[in-house]
Every structure is written in structure tokens, then in C-alpha cells.
Amino acid sequence: MEKNAWFIMIYQWSNNIISSLGFTTEENYTAVKQGNTGLKYYKNPFDFPEDAMLSLIDDEHLNNAFSSINTKQKTAYTRFEKAAILSAYKALEKTNIDVKSKKVVFILSTTKGNVELLDKKESELYEAERVYLWRSAQLITSFFDNPNEAIIVSNACISGAAAQITALRLLQQKIYDFAIVIGADVLSKFIISGFQSFKSLSVDICKPFDKNRCGLNLGEAAATIIYSSIENNRPLLSNNIVLLNGAIANDANHISGPSRTGDGLSIAIEKTLQNTNIQDIALINAHGTATPYNDDMESMAITANQLENIPINSLKGFLGHTLGAAGVLETILSGVALLDNMLLKSNGSENPKTICPLNIVLNNQNSFKTHFLKLLSGFGGCNAAILLKKT
Amino acid sequence: MNINIASYCRLTNHKLEVNDIDIQIQKTEASSLNDIYRHLNLSYPKFFKMDNLSKAGFLASELLLKNIIIDKETPKKDMAIVLMNRSASLDNDRTYQTTIQYENNFFPSPSVFVYTLSNIVNGEIAIRNKIMGESSFYISENFSPEKIYSAVMNTFSDPNINQVICGWVDYEFNECDVLLLLIRKENQEKIPFNVNNIYHLYT
């Protein structure tokens, strides 16, 4: 990529994470670095008739933090909207970006938005249109008085990477100066019961890539990355993360199960790594949901690309599978760790065993390499890879 | 190199049009999507497991690609699917909600839940035709030729992609609203892919 004359660097100007582990990137990174998980056992969460291991955003904390920034709007916002707006607000707060400019676009990555409003018990406060993703997106952009219609990416669990790839393309073409990529999903009876019906939930903290892995944990989060092609006036001029490339490919195999061969993910990785020196890659931050099939599929795609010796981790054992937020949240944490010369341990991975052996990060370790690869796969047979580096 | 509209299919409750030809369907039952399936003499039993959104997108793709994709088995890495709609998967989400609404009648179904994602329709079209390029789904309040055009041109920024199935695939409250286009990079000059032509085929 860097050999092309037209190549324009896309910088991370700012970021934020709202999750069970805190409401800033720093709080989240510190907790994960110390090995703290945000996953907890909940009794009948959201009126779901069973118990579940989840990572939830604290309601009281969210409401208080949101009230302190919402000084003018009278709208009643949903949890999803509050988390998304708060995350974008906190990312913007660290910058001098004029969010009212035509050159700033919001890109929203979510799988289910306000889907809990389909439950009549939940919907009384809100107008019928609030279940539509575009309506939430309108409320987010109007909160910030941004004049552009938001771009809404809803591509199952790869949405967070797909949204960053969209940002990359728009910024490289100079259509916008800034792209504010928000990945957000909150949990509900709707989502938890669905994953439970698939028998894909683990009652304990999930074990990515482990021989005893038996399912995933769900999590909720809102995470924001602000990307820009502008080099000057960046808040962190000397230490920064650049988004280099990304690709999406379909398995064309099954709508709800990962490909048994890893073909789609393998194609996405291959396209993303064109012209990259593999020796520069510090880390593969995998999807690593801890379902038996997903982790095996990833091991095959990684091995097919001869990347099996590169250290690999999954962050699902800290924050669960945060759906449309996962790609944004995990990209931020992996980037911050790399700037700290740190590879974060893959929480829950104790005795790694996948069809193709991988080099799992079992304890935090140092690395002074520059690049990392983020992988995601999802229902509908979609797979994504993105490549970032520190400058 | 030209970027052309190689084929199109418009499917609504009242109209089925493929490359300027109106297709008349004999309506026999409540679901006109099932009628179209029978009219096309397809043999693809998975169709009946799909939700309405996937059925609508799948049928339009079968008509769009008829005489174009003959070999459905060979992997097509140069082909992408880029779709957009207003209501995501809300039509099927409402169906799923009825399975979890009442405590004394709580029976969440995995076969319904799997269709609670809008991009499953991409997956169904990809599986049927072994399409392994990019797969994307965007949401927009209204049909927007500009957004479709821009998303497709972004997809062509990957030099390995030569053809894109794109368009608007919406199904909600028994209203079907689909326009699928096959966009190809070609040497010949045909119907050019541009905002006006997308709009013209929709209306």
C-alpha cells in the first residue's frame, strides 16, 4: 500500500471506550492490562428467564455521565443512544475538531440498535420510529449539530471493521476530513435469548482458543475512533496509530456457521496484507469468540496465510462479544497496547488447542514491532481484516 | 474501462421487471414471493426457510443473474454484494419478538433468530452463487441512488473486484421494495452506472 503514490495516511486522532470496565480508553486499557475482566454473572438479566455471564454498562454511571453532557436537548434518549453519544462526545472532547463542519461525517456501526423497543413494555417512552437505525443515527448527528447524514453500517459482527474500511475509503478520497466511527450495541432479552437458542453462550468466562472452550459471552459497549487524513494539530502528534488497509470477504458457505475451511477470512487477510512485511506484525487481535468452530476456523485462515507464529490474542475474555462495537473497541485497545509496547494476554486461554496450532499470548508481554492485524467474522458468512500500525 | 449496469431486477408487490421485460405472475396464495419462486421453477428448498427479506433479495438475484451466472459452483472472488435498506431486518425481528414476548409462551427459535440481521440476505445470495468478494449492508432512511452509487464505487477501489450486485432490498409490513443491479467493469459501452440511471430504474 505505502508504495502507491496516491496513498494517504489515515490517522487515529482520538478514541474512547464506554464499557463495564470504565468510560474512558485509559480506564479500559488499565483494567485489561491488569488482567481485570468486566464479565459478571447476572441473574435473569433483562427479564431473560435464565442467568448469564455478561459484560454490561452500568446504568447509573451511564445516566449520570450522560446528564452531565446533555445540557440542551429535551429528547428522551435510549441506553443505546446515550452510550453512543457519550462515547463520541468523550472522543471529540480531546480534540479541536469543528463537529458542525460539512467535512465531518459520522459512521455508525451497530447490529441491533434499539431493538429492545419491539418489546411493548420498553417502548412507551419513545415514538414508533425509534426502532429504526437511521432514527438513532439522526439523533446522534443532531446532538452534535453535524450537518451530514450518518453512514450506517449493519453487517453483523464485522460491522466495526466494515465501518473503519468505509472511513478509510472516504478519507483517502478526501470526501471528508474527519470520520467519527462509533461502534455500539447494548444487550436485551431479544439478543441474549437468540444467542442462547443457538446454544452458543458459555455460563463461565469464555475461553478463546482453549481446548475446553464451549461458547461466548455477550457484552455491551460503545467505542469511538476519530480518523483523519490531516496530519497537523493531532492531539498525540508523536505517538499514533494509522489505519493502513482492510478487506471483507464472504465464505459463501453457511448463514449462521463459520466456514469449516476459513476460506473467506483467509481471502480477507490475504488482501489486507498485500505489500506488507510480515516481520513487522506484532500481533493478530483475533475475533476469538471462544465458540469451538469460530476459533478453529480462524486458526485455519491464519495458518493458510503463514501467520501462525505471530502472537495472537482475543479480548473477548475481558469484555465479551460486543457485537457491532467489537471491531472498534478491540482495535482501540490493541492500538493503545501497541503504543505501550505491550501485547495483552488472551484472557481465558489456558490450554490453547485449535485445529491449526497458534501462538497465543498467555501473559502480557512486550513487543517493539509496529503493525497489528484485527480480524472479525460474523453471521451471513462475512469476514473482515484490517491492518494498522503505530507511527 | 466502463462501469456498466449489466442487468437489473425491480421487484415490488405490484411489479416484477427484469431488464425491461415485465413478468406476469399468477397469484395463487397470500405470499406472492412463494408464487414467484414457483413461477421460476426453482429447485432450492432452502428458500422456504428464509425470512421475507431474504426471499425477496434471493428471488431478485435469481432473475438478475439468470443467463449471467451459469456456473453457480465455481468460487467468484471478483464479485461483491453491496445492499442497502430502510428497515434492516425489522420485519423478521418483529416475528422473533413474538416468540419471547410472554413468559408462559417463551420459545425463542434459532431458525427465526438467524434472520434478525439484515446482511443475511447477502449471505443467501453469496451461498447460492458462490460469491466470495466483499459483502456489505448499509441502512438509509430513504432510497438513495447517491448512497448506492458511492458505496459501489468504494467497493471497486479493491482492484480485484470486477462486478458488484448492488441495490435496495427492503421488506416490511408486507411491502416488498427491491431494486437489484449487476454492475460490471467492461470494455464495451452499455448503460452507464450513474446516479440518474439508478434512479430511473427504481421509479
What would the keywords be for this entry?
A: 391 residues; alpha/beta; Peroxisomal Thiolase, Chain A, domain 1; 2 domains; 11-stranded mixed sheet; 3-stranded mixed sheet; 16 strands; B: 203 residues; 7 strands
Description of the molecule:
The complex is a heterodimer of chains A (391) and B (203). The longest helix of chain A has 15 residues. In chain A, 28% of the residues lie in helices and 21% in strands. Chain A is α/β, with parallel strands linked by helices and 391 residues long. Chain A is built from ten helices and 16 strands. In chain A, the strands form three sheets. In chain A, strands 5-4-6-8-1-9-16-15-10-11-13 form an eleven-stranded mixed β-sheet, sandwiched between helices. In chain A, strands 2-3-7 form a three-stranded mixed β-sheet, with no helix packed on it. Chain A is globular. In chain A, helix 1 packs across helix 10 and helix 2 packs across helix 3. Chain A has two domains: 219 residues, Thiolase/Chalcone synthase (Peroxisomal Thiolase, Chain A, domain 1, 3-Layer(aba) Sandwich); 150 residues, 3-Layer(aba) Sandwich (Peroxisomal Thiolase, Chain A, domain 1), CATH 3.40.47.10. Chain B has 203 residues and is an alpha/beta fold. Chain B has a seven-stranded mixed β-sheet with strand order 3-2-1-7-6-4-5, with helices on both faces. In chain B, helix 2 packs parallel to helix 5. The relative contact order of chain B is 0.24. The mean pLDDT of chain B is 95. Chains A and B meet through helix 4, strand 5, helix 5, helix 6 and strand 9 of A and helix 3, helix 5 and strand 5 of B. Strand 5 of chain A pairs antiparallel with strand 5 of chain B.
